[in-house]
Amino acid sequence: MIVKVINRSANQLPAYETLHAAGMDLRADLDAPVILQPLERKLIPTGLYIELPEGFEAQIRPRSGLAFKHGIGIVNSPGTVDADYRGEIKVLLINLSNEAFEIKAGDRIAQMVVARHERVEWIAAEVLTDTTRGAGGYGHTGVN
């Protein structure tokens, strides 16, 4: 798939780090380091602008290493970049740890997965097709 991109940062374009990786790392585009205090959230710019084809979205997801080692996540995870959005991709990070965390220019702050999606056409109904699971949810499996 070919996607148009404008890179206004000094960072390299997102790239797949391994042969079978689904996501590409996004890097912080900062003039100065940003300190993220415990339970604080900040919008971190990437300097990237993309033009996705119709029927695709870019999902912005946390990086597992940042989450595990430092408690850094994404508030609206996964964030969605729609095909008609032309603004800068920014990442809404949150510090879920008890310690301040420093983000520097070029740091890998999130990963982006481009995925196809469908548009839904609703049909009003009075009943739904029955299944073995039925209406069971929230912890219903594994309970005898």
Automatic annotation (TrEMBL):
Pfam families: dUTPase. Pathway: Pyrimidine metabolism; dUMP biosynthesis; dUMP from dCTP (dUTP route): step 2/2. GO terms for biological process: dUMP biosynthetic process; dUTP catabolic process. It comes from Mucilaginibacter straminoryzae. InterPro entries: dUTPase, dUTPase-like, dUTPase-like_sf, dUTPase_trimeric. Residues 12-142 form the dUTPase-like domain. Substrate binds at R63, S64, G65, N76, T80, V81, D82. Keywords: Hydrolase, Magnesium, Metal-binding, Nucleotide metabolism. Signal peptide: none annotated. It is an enzyme of class 3 (hydrolase). It comes from the Bacteria. It catalyses: dUTP + H2O = dUMP + diphosphate + H(+). This enzyme is involved in nucleotide metabolism: it produces dUMP, the immediate precursor of thymidine nucleotides and it decreases the intracellular concentration of dUTP so that uracil cannot be incorporated into DNA. This is Deoxyuridine 5'-triphosphate nucleotidohydrolase. HAMAP family: dUTPase_bact. Its cofactor is Mg(2+). GO terms for molecular function: dUTP diphosphatase activity; magnesium ion binding. Its EC number is 3.6.1.23. Belongs to the dUTPase family.
